[in-house]
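Chain A, query sequence.
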Amino acid sequence: MNRILTCLAVVCFTTFTSGSGASSTACRVQAAERPNVLFIAVDDLNDWVGCLGGHPQARTPHIDRLAATGMLFTNAHCAAPACNPSRTAIMTGISPHRSGLYDNRQRMRELLPDAELLPKYFSRHGYWSAGSGKLLHYFIDAPSWDEYFPPKETEDPFPRTLYPEERPVSLPRGGPWQYIETDWAALDATDEEFGGDWLVSQWVGQQLERQHDQPFFLACGIYRPHEPWFVPRKYFDLFPLQEIQLPPGYQDGDLDDLPPAGKRRGPNRYFPHIRQHGQWKQAIQGYLASITFADAMVGRVIRSLEAGPNRENTIVVLWSDHGWHLGEKQHWQKYTAWRVCTRVPLIVRVPGGVPGLSAGTEAGSRCDQPVNLLSLFPTLTQLAGLPPQPSHDGPSLVPLLQDPQGPWPHVSITFLNKPRNVGISGRRWRYIEYDNGDRELYDTKDDRFEWTNLAEQPEHAARIAAMRARAPSTYAKLVPASDEALPKLAWQPAGDEPAPASRPDGDPFQIVITNQSNVPVNVYWMDRQGHPRPYGSLPAGWRKTQQSRPGAVWLITDSRDQPLGHFVVGDRAARAIIPDLD
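Chain A, predicted structure.
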């Protein structure tokens, strides 16, 4: 495609002031007729960035500098507080309550086989769409991209990454319920030796530093601060352990005014386990270090853009898929509707002259209106002058990019892992409702950390009714993941030692036992004393769902009750495949 479609000639001298992040020109630079898009995702990043003030020790100079050159949305929220539904909503523009994709265990293409993803949409309209790193939930969706690193055909978005040979390093596993990646440590390695996000930023930077004969949609998926919090030592050294401050949103007794559903959603086993082992401050240190590492990788990408030929005609968007608890509400990880988990960094920088916003964004502008990551797809299509998609659910953010204080008749809705469990964010008020009718209401102007639940105070009844009316009236059903979408449990063939006793520890879930052998088998649960308890037979080629728990052991025998092998259940739903025994 002729280069004239991508950008018009720059007819004046431009200089860049590195300290302020601002460009100065002798005259106005004509930006792209069809602007490029740089789409930066940072995984599991809450508001612990300097420009949002989430933690006083956070060091994110590069993200802060990007915010100073564009618009920072200070009240942005995810569509779902988990990677898979959040990223699916962003990349399809379809809300979880319509797609039915609420949970990390579901597969996007099983529920949305025909949905056109953001990169494919741009590619279909004359763009070169490329990406690197984690943009979707542990897969690439190869047909949606023109090019990817690692190669899209692998469906593995992660380049080689250095991890300790022996793990865990800092946090002993509390049991089979614990996610194996919940661990942290400083690595004696350079950024380049670490690989991972360094390799992603290197590849993306190389694309930004060269001329293209098409406009591009270029996505960069930075994995940190997703667990495990292993990054080079120099980032840990920025946060001496003796100086680490606890999360400002933590408060003892914060669960006392919650309804039963909130109290169940809050406490989990990670937080007391971490405290039991004296690792709370070490974990905060690891998270802060991982954030600063991620920020450094963002800085590498932005420097490549600014040093290359595409700086004057490229829209830059930076977002995180959801926030993260580090003890607030006695919770660790994600999966909640509280602000610490739904609120995310969102920065948009638009050059002047683009079809959907000729004036571009004002450097250093801020917007406190409630917005949602679901709006990114329609926003980018409007900015690029591409036709809108009727299937999109979020409103375009272009009106706010034009005037951050202008009319905005929208709330931001976050959907939990089951229908009718929602968090609704307004400009000041936040309302949470669970599917059993339990509810919470917070005034974030006076109660930034949501310590005081106002839902049962009569004077707020009208406000609650108004916010409830903003939630959807219908929801797509939660469709469990297919067998193929579930991870496989390791088959342990029978040997001289009997199958071990079960050590059930954690909440129940379903596993699927599939008999791929050519003979019928018997299924037994090994109890805590190591005695087999019968759970029926399974003919050749058949499958059965079975409720189980982390640490459970399932013994498989032949028709004469001779042991064939066993499975040990991990921390999540899975497949137990009995192999062909010939």
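The longest strand covers residues 36-42. Residues 235 and 293 are 6 Å apart (CA to CA).
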